[in-house]
Amino acid sequence: MEFSNRCSRRCAYCGLNAHRKDLRRYRMTHEEILAATRLAVRLGYGTVVLQSGEDEGATRDGLGELVRSIKAETPLAVTLSVGECSEADLAAWKQAGADRYLLRFETSDRNLYDRLHPPRRPGERSDRLGLLGTLRKLGYETGSGVLVGLPGQTFESLAEDLQRFAELDLDMIGCGPFIPHPGTALGGEQTTPTPDGQVPATELMGYKVIALARLLCPDANIPSTTALSTLNRTAGRERGLARGANVVMPNLTPARYRNLYEIYPGKPTADVDLHDQDARLRAQIAALGRSVGTGPGASPAYRQRTAAVPTAQGA
Ligand code: 5AD
After folding, report:
1. CA angle 252, 144, 235 (to 5 degrees)
2. Which residue in 51, 67, 119, 229 has the fewest CB atoms around it within 10 Å?
């Protein structure tokens, strides 16, 4: 659920960036978010992801209260994906009951990252790898990932990214091709391969990265991402699943907000009726000969890690 498209950052690749004065901004109310999580329960889902831009209005206390309400009212595992936050924020949300956190490091090439990703305030330096360590230390089930085919991204650095996934022992890995947004600094960028080793931002490269991530991290949860469905509306999602992904993330954002969460253009316009969307998705998965899991769906990596630590119940 994309609960707010407000963002204080200016990432060169992202259509939500603060420079975009033409984009109407929204932030869902707690009641709207809770209604959508109740629907998730009725549809049989075991987990919900709350994603937003870096919305300064989504405060430590506000988001903490929301997480508490969801955990009190539903059996859902709650994943937050709200960008770079302080350790105090992350600890407070964990305390409130948040289970998981997604923060892509986008690229392990420091120069490329710094070029595309200005700090929040001058002089600050964003350290997403450091934050991933903090999340893990706080006990979150931790997810990350990269963009595939960023202008300036080389095959060598992409190989480095993949190696990082294994080193970080990630529980969740989300990767998808870069899709230029015309309202951003990278809007007109070339996405085809060049002789100097530029990674192409293609559907095929997206699949290759998923397949390699699966080989390197057999116990991680890997979604077939929306960016793949955007590049190939009919087959993107199922091809991702056939090439190493084991997770799908149906969009629960209410129809009136969906088009405003425009990280990149051309996102598939899902069914307005979320029951229809769900039925279609289940039929697609059944047609692949796969079955839909139930329950909160922690990654095998996380289950193994936590099973090794005796709990208070001695379980
Ligand atoms: N194309 C594809 N993915 C993008 N993201 C941001 N901008 C784009 C884009 N133009 C991805 C980033 C971010 C995630 C929420 O969306 O990897 O972490």
Report:
1. 55
2. 119
